[in-house]
């Protein structure tokens, strides 16, 4: 029983340490604050329930990130038809609101990427995970992750260049 308690303590420490990153990861999938919080909450519950299946605590972070990604993907599959705009986006779109200088083109281009590419880019550049950690999270081969990252960046570059050329009239 002491090993299970120690494992739960390490899991709770990992969740606490990475809570902002995990929320941001969930948010990149659903683009809604409440849904992202629900996903994180579900992922924490799933992780605590399945903590006994974790064989090596060295991989606890990537194991938990995998649970978050899978929970987000499950959520998207269940709510496929529904598109919700969060309060921040809605506020930014209303006339008279302050100008925001977020990179909307990059965000739009990322949203248009297939999920397998968007996941790799998000985990690599927004969550600052290493290639082998991403491979652990997504349960893929390291070379597959490298290839997907290469293709994703190529698609983003093409999309961003196309958009900038269209706007020059």
From TrEMBL:
Record keywords: Sigma factor, Transcription, Transcription regulation
Matches recorded under InterPro entries: RNA_pol_sigma-70-like (IPR039425), RNA_pol_sigma-70_dom (IPR014284), RNA_pol_sigma70_r2 (IPR007627), RNA_pol_sigma70_r4_t2 (IPR013249), RNA_pol_sigma_r2 (IPR013325), RNA_pol_sigma_r3/r4-like (IPR013324), WH-like_DNA-bd_sf (IPR036388)
Ranges where the RNA polymerase sigma factor 70 region 4 type domain occurs: 106-156
One family name in Pfam for this protein: Sigma70_r4_2
Positions of the RNA polymerase sigma-70 region domain: 15-81
MF (Gene Ontology): DNA binding; sigma factor activity
GO biological-process terms attached to the record: DNA-templated transcription initiation
Family named by the database record: Belongs to the sigma-70 factor family. ECF subfamily.
Protein name per Swiss-Prot or TrEMBL: RNA polymerase sigma factor
Species of the source: Paenibacillus roseopurpureus
């Amino acid at each position: 029983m002491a090993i299970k308690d120690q494992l739960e303590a390490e899991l709770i420490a990992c969740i606490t340490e990475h809570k902002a990153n995990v929320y941001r990861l969930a948010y990149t999938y659903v683009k809604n604050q409440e849904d992202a919080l629900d996903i994180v909450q579900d992922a924490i519950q799933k992780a605590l329930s399945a903590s006994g299946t974790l064989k090596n605590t060295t991989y606890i972070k990537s194991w938990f990130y995998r649970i978050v990604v899978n929970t987000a993907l499950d959520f998207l599959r269940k709510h496929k038809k529904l598109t919700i705009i969060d309060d921040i986006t809605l506020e930014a779109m209303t006339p008279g609101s302050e100008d925001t200088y977020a990179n909307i083109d990059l965000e739009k281009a990322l949203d248009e990427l297939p999920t397998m590419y968007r996941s790799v880019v998000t985990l690599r550049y927004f969550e600052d995970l290493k290639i082998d950690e991403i491979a652990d999270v997504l349960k893929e081969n390291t070379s597959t992750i490298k290839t997907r990252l290469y293709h994703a960046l190529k698609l983003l570059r093409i999309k961003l260049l196309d958009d900038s050329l269209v706007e020059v009239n």
